[in-house]
Design a protein that fits this description.
Structural class: alpha/beta
Distance between the termini: 22 Å
Number of domains: 2
Bound molecules: 3-isopropylmalic acid, magnesium ion
Oligomer: single chain
Shape: globular
């Protein structure tokens, strides 16, 4: 049965990097993968065309699709808009409408890129971390929220950090089962010394952990975790954390790997339907220049193949192709190294396509 992949290029470098990912999907189609690609609007592009960041047509498409591939959303152009209709709301709306509560953000260092990290090679070489970020709860979605005027005329902004027990349980199960497939070490990151919501988080994760005696569970405060990730990142296997802490720590972790342009992500619902996107944003400063790194998006395609289409065999081929181009010394600007060839976005995509085709 043909499976539909909804493709949402979005804003900034989104369309450029998605174009390269589509080349990769085309190769797989030519070699028998039975998929149909349908593009739709999201973010600023959707605002410009329809007035809203998540149009009904897009929502209808992603709901019936087998998986979603997203570029990036946002840009300076839409910053003056009210926060409730900004491009980011389109992305947050997709996450919550599809109940994509489990965000998997792997941060592993490619041997070829050890020197691209700003950290010393011996600190990062061999690094392989998985950050499991809760994605549909916490302060991102908690109510009440807003900006209000007090009786004395002063204004205040407010948000709510709230986690229901069931929300913590389900993300904890994803984290523990992920750890079981890896080195069986799980570190839950919270701020239990200050925030009740995360004191509760710690309690629930600990209880869920009783079902996974083979996984070693530890807890760490988020400030310490940020420090430890830079000091000695190899101490971590799987990290599970709240929506906002996961947002911050995954950007931090990306720099261990050399470039945020290398990190893919999967956002999954309870049935492994998923949305796949690079963790970097729309990078308006380099948009339209054909210099962005498309590898995070191409690696997101590999995750899509593995988690939503159950085609780990093809995912491996895509991963291998990315490794091959890096071994061949091909680099985009963000990971450039003296003596190696610096290529454009589209040339990088072509190189991956060539390396992929050779494997069939
Ligand atoms: C991310 C991004 C988003 C987030 C933004 C674009 C809303 O930073 O996916 O990490 O904060 O979740
Ligand atoms: Mg982020």
């Amino acid at each position: 049965m043909t499976q539909t992949i909804a493709v949402l290029p979005g804003d900034g470098i989104g369309p450029e990097i998605i174009a390269e990912a589509l080349k990769v999907l085309d190769v797989l189609k030519n070699f028998g993968l039975d998929i149909e690609i349908q593009e739709a609007l999201i973010g600023g592009a959707a605002i410009d065309a329809t007035g809203v960041p998540l149009p009904p047509d897009t929502l209808a498409l992603v709901k019936q699709a087998s998986a979603v591939l997203l570029g990036a959303v946002g840009g300076v152009k839409w910053e003056p808009l009210d926060i409730s209709i900004r491009p980011e709301k389109g992305l947050l709306g997709l996450r919550s409408e599809l109940e994509l509560f489990a965000n998997l953000r792997p941060a592993s260092v490619f041997p070829e890129l050890v020197n691209a990290s700003t950290l010393k090679a011996d600190v990062v070489s061999g690094l392989d971390i998985l950050i499991v970020r809760e994605l549909t709860g916490g302060i991102y979605f908690g109510k009440p929220r807003g900006i209000r005027t007090l009786d004395n005329g002063e204004r205040e902004g407010f948000n709510t950090l709230v986690y229901r027990e069931s929300e913590i349980e389900r993300i904890a199960h994803v984290a523990f089962t992920s750890a079981q497939k890896r080195q069986k070490r799980l570190c839950s990151v919270d701020k239990a010394n200050v925030l009740e919501a995360t004191e509760f988080w710690r309690e629930v994760v600990t209880r869920v952990g009783k079902n996974y005696p083979d996984v070693q569970l530890t807890h760490m405060y988020v400030d310490n975790a940020a420090m430890q990730l830079v000091r000695y990142p190899k101490q971590f296997d799987v990290i599970v954390t709240t929506n906002m802490f996961g947002d911050i720590l995954s950007d931090l972790a990306s720099m261990l790997t050399g470039s945020i342009g290398m990190l893919p992500s999967a956002s999954l619902d309870a049935n492994h339907k998923g949305m796949y996107e690079p963790i970097h944003g729309s990078a308006p400063d380099i948009a339209g220049q054909n210099i962005a790194n498309p590898l995070a998006t191409i690696l997101s395609v590999a995750m899509l193949l593995k988690y939503s289409l159950q085609r780990a065999d093809l995912a491996d081929k895509v991963d291998n192709a990315v490794h091959q181009v890096l071994r061949d010394g091909i680099r985009t600007k963000d990971i450039q190294e003296a003596g190696l060839k610096t290529v454009s976005t589209s040339e990088m995509g072509d190189a991956v396509v060539a390396a992929l085709q050779k494997q069939f």
